[in-house]
Design goal:
Carbamate kinase; two-stranded antiparallel sheet; 8 helices; 37% helix
């Protein structure tokens, strides 16, 4: 089985590792995510991952209590490293060689992010999990995913989330929300889609990197996406 893409950057929310209450890290849930990633790599596709931290820390909560924005963002970056380590553990438990690289140097637990080293790992068949965002405050993990995807020459940025596509309104609260199979970058920006921030979309647009929004949890959704089957919402030129 061969995929449509040779190399992908998979963006996951921190909530993908959370337990039933939506917070913390659940090793069982991490194992379920790892199996989905294994299915992708078994298609012959190189996989890099950026994961968020919404299950551990949300910066808006700190800001609403008067925290300094840079401090709040730095806490979030550190939380993404915890998620990256948990995901690496889950992947290695099912036999997948995995490397964690971080934008903030912490040599005792992970490699520093080095672009060519990340590419070398991918070419060797390793999964690479990229933690600590961009290493800078004021940038989201979506933007980090877009930046890293461009840097490692990924063919597509796949945003795997709890919804199956981009909608004009929240489908969880609006059952009549309109679903889109395809959008241009400018349409996505003008709509101010909630699934990805404007800086991330603009980075992809400037570098002609397609974005594919799919459900993480729909059975077979990710596997279908990397095989080029019609699934989710494609954002491109």
């Amino acid at each position: 089985m061969s995929g449509k893409y040779n190399r992908i950057l998979l963006k996951l929310g921190g909530e993908s590792l959370a337990g039933p209450n939506g917070t913390g890290i659940d090793p069982v849930r991490a194992g379920q995510v790892a199996e989905k990633i294994k299915n992708i790599q078994d298609s012959g596709i190189e996989v890099a991952i950026v994961i968020g931290a919404g299950n551990l820390w949300r910066g808006v909560k700190g800001l609403s209590a008067g925290m300094d924005r840079a401090t709040s963002d730095q806490m979030g970056m550190l939380a993404t490293v915890m998620n990256a380590l948990a995901l690496r553990d889950a992947l290695e438990r099912i036999g997948m060689i995995t490397r964690v690289q971080t934008a903030i140097e912490m040599k005792q637990i992970a490699e520093p992010y080095i672009r060519l080293r990340a590419i070398h790992h991918l070419e060797k068949g390793y999964v690479v999990v990229l933690g600590a965002g961009t290493g800078n405050p004021y940038f989201t993990t979506d933007t980090a995913a877009a930046l890293r995807a461009v840097e490692i020459n990924a063919d597509v940025l796949i945003k795997a989330t709890k919804v199956d596509a981009v909608y004009d309104r929240d489908p969880m609260t609006n059952p009549d929300a309109a679903r889109f199979d395809r959008l241009t970058y400018m349409q996505a920006l003008n709509m101010q889609v909630k699934v990805m921030d404007a800086t991330a979309i603009t980075t992809c647009m400037d570098n002609d990197l397609p974005i594919l929004v799919v459900s993480l949890w729909d059975e077979g959704s990710l596997s279908s996406a990397v095989l080029g089957e019609k699934v989710g919402t494609l954002i491109s030129l």
